[in-house]
Amino acid sequence: MAFPTFVGLGAFASSAGAITPVLPAGIATNDLLLLFLETHQETATVPTPNGGTWTQAPSSPQGSGSFGANSSARITVFYSFYNGTQGNPTTNDPGDHISGRIAAFRGVNLNNPFNTSSGGVNTDVGSTTTVNGGTTTVAQCLVIGCGATEDDGDSIGAWTAGSGLANFTEMFENIHTAGDQGLITAWRAEKATAGAYGNSTATMTPSGQRRAFMSLALNPVNISATLAVTLGGASLTASATALCAASLGVTLWGINPTASAAAPASASLAVTLEGLTIQAEALIGRDADLSVTLEGLVSDSSAVHELLATANITLTKLKLKAKAQHVPPDFVGSGQEVNRHMWIGMRFGF
Fold first, then answer.
1. How far apart are the C-alpha atoms of 290 and 225, rounded to whole Å?
2. Cα–Cα distance for residue pair 137/241, rounded to 1 Å
3. What is the rounded CA–CA span in Å between residue 6 and residue 55?
4. Which of 89, 178, 199, 326 has its Cα between 20 and 30 A from that of 333?
């Protein structure tokens, strides 16, 4: 299991009408796209997805102030998994103005991208800007914070990361003069272990401006692994859910349960990880010990979900070990069997 990773940003867009934010460069199929949109409490939608599917993120939108008023702010977030062919989406014209930007992330759970979310607003009092924390249920989530304020004269100072967050990085802070102006910002940070993370704060200049903020914790790629062992007619199947969609299978052929000799057996191990198949084969004797370790999913040249055969891959964290040992029977007198058993063991470690 590994943290989702940041891929890149598209160009910032703003207008008194609709906008067409640009997709980031270097994206690959199944990368998660987050579209951050800022308005003055007006509703933002994506009526022209241009071949993609855009869904509003949990806890979105968050807003403060009156609809379309100068002293108001709203942050809205949509997400889409890049399908390999979709183009730049176009928003609606919400009224006064809209601004936005798209960020891309790799290694996010396709079936359940968001582990937790939260949102809130800061009214037109004070200068402390707060992005609410949350509680994750799995390790190695990537937490995304984002927000909007009401004016192009606004500025947000250095962030203080919430407790439990590491490698805090601001991705962008953009202002614009379309309509009644505004500011939009986003950051990312790592949450290494499951559990609570605290509020992240910054000082806004000038004070007394309305602002709205959200946080989203991205789930790492989910792994459901099944390991099956068949040994001379006896079989055992075990399954484990850790975090990446994968299937693991081990089958041992050629061992005779009644043979006293350590006859060699051909064994194969197959790993399928979201379209990528890795094969390993070995020639073994009576005692078989096969193991596979999946350690973080790193590729030097290809997307996580469509790795090429030539890509360098590191697989971490998920450890599945199957060990099979055949103990031949003992015979007494005229062939009466007094001891005949088979032992198959599995160990799963995370």
1. 15
2. 14
3. 20
4. 326
pLDDT mean over 149-168: 90
Cβ neighbours around 77 below 10 Å, total: 25
Assign 164 to helix, strand or coil: coil
Give the length of the chain: 350
pTM, full prediction? 0.68
Average pLDDT over residues 196-206: 92
Distance CA 213, CA 147 (A): 4
Q: Is 335 left (phi over 0), alpha (psi -120 to 50) or beta?
A: left
The mean pLDDT of 23-44, rounded to a whole number, is: 96
Q: Where are the domains of the chain?
A: 5-218, 223-349
The amino acid sitting at 339 is: N
**End-to-end alpha-carbon separation of the chain, Å?**
9
| HSE, side-chain direction, 13 A CA sphere, residue 157 | 11
Q: What's the CA gap between 243 and 345, in Å, rounded?
A: 23
Chain centroid to CA 324: how far?
Answer: 35
pLDDT beyond 70 at 139: yes
Name which of 198, 70, 212 is nearest 136 in CA terms: 198
In three-state secondary structure terms, 306 is helix
Per-position b or e across 230-265, b if 16+ CB within 10 A of its CB: bbbeeeeebebebbbbbbbbbebeebeeeeeeeeeb
- What kind and span of H or E run contains 119? strand 114-122
Query: Which residue bears the tokens 């200049």?
Result: 205
